[in-house]
Structures are given as C-alpha cells and as structure tokens.
Amino acid sequence: MRTCHEIALRRGRYSASGQLYHITTCTHERRPLFANATCARLVIGHMRNLHDDRRLSSLAWVLMPDHLHWLFALGEGATLSGVVKRFKGRSAAGLRPATGPGPVWQRGFHDHALRHDEDVQAIARYIVANPLRAGLVGRVGDYPWWDAVWL
C-alpha cells in the first residue's frame, strides 16, 4: 500500500534523457549501514555499474552513513524511476549478507530535475559538503565516500 507521502513524491516526476537530476534516498529506518566501509564500497560499485552501463552519467555524489545524494544526467532510453529501482534492488541484494533480511532502503526517493539556470557546480559542492555540515569531518577531503567530475 502506498502512503500519501510516496504518492506525492511521484507526482510530477518525469524522465528525460540527458536531464540532470539530484536524487536523495535513505536507508530503511535511517540505519547507518554505510559507516561500514565494506557496505559503502559495495553501494558505490553499483553506482559505478549504472554509469558504466550508460544508464546515467554520474556528476557528483556523497554516500552518507544513512543516505545518498547523487547528481547525474539520465542516459538515453533510461527512466529515472527505473534507474533508481535498479540501483536500490541490486545494491540491496548485494548488501543482504551484511544487513540480514528485511528492507535496506526506504521506499521512494526524492528527486529534483535541475533547471537550465541552476548552477550545477554549486549543487555538486552542496552535495559533497554534506559530511562537513553533518560534523562527520573537518574537511571535505577527509570523508572517503564522495566524488565529483570536476576534480
């Protein structure tokens, strides 16, 4: 059964090849699964697979202990919901030995389709600075689970 919040998250969602999207998705019950380096590396590997398969072109991301911020351009023929569903499904299956049974990710995700007038690099800086704002590190470069194409 879908909640009103899930339906609201989907309202107005569209997919366009080449469109830039900033998505945020959280672990189930905000469990800090990615404080574990093995789990973090596994999830990052699944993100890279989507990039390598050209379903998207990853621009910037940060994997926080309990959520992911990801900026990417949607690949030709891919849908936003399809890409996120594939990522969450495959990463959850890979994480299952470490997490045990039950959900890994919260249902749904938040997305923002960037407008042409938005500063993409400013959004990328905002994304990769999340660990700094959360007080996890004193410098962005000290946090291990992030990347941006501008480096």
Give me the secondary-structure topology.
Elements: H1 4-10, E1 20-26, H2 37-52, E2 56-63, E3 67-74, H3 80-99, E4 110-113, H4 120-128, H5 130-133, E5 146-148
Antiparallel strand pairs: 1-3, 1-4, 2-3, 2-5
Domain Transposase IS200-like: 16-130
Protein name: Transposase
GO biological process, one term: DNA transposition
Describe the main β-sheet briefly.
5 strands, antiparallel
Whole-number average pLDDT? 92
Straight-line distance between termini: 43 Å
Sheet with the most strands: spatial strand order: 4-1-3-2-5
**Rg, alpha carbons:** 15 Å
Domains (count): 1
CATH architecture: 2-Layer Sandwich
GO molecular function: sequence-specific DNA binding; transposase activity
Protein name: Transposase
Organism: Stutzerimonas marianensis
InterPro entries: RAYT_transposase, Transposase_17, Transposase_17_sf
Protein architecture, described:
This protein has 151 residues and is an alpha+beta fold. The protein has one domain: Transposase IS200-like (Alpha-Beta Plaits), CATH 3.30.70. 37% of the residues lie in helices and 20% in strands. The chain is built from five helices and five strands; from the N terminus they run H-E-H-E-E-H-E-H-H-E. It has helices at 4-10, 37-52, 80-99, 120-128, 130-133; strands spanning 20-26, 56-63, 67-74, 110-113, 146-148. The protein has a five-stranded antiparallel sheet with strand order 4-1-3-2-5, sandwiched between helices. Strand 2 (56-63) and strand 3 form a beta hairpin. Helix 2 runs antiparallel to helix 3 (80-99). The N and C termini lie far apart (43 Å). Mean pLDDT is 92; it is low at 1-10. GO terms for molecular function: sequence-specific DNA binding; transposase activity. It comes from Stutzerimonas marianensis. This is Transposase. Residues 16-130 form the Transposase IS200-like domain. Pfam families: Y1_Tnp.
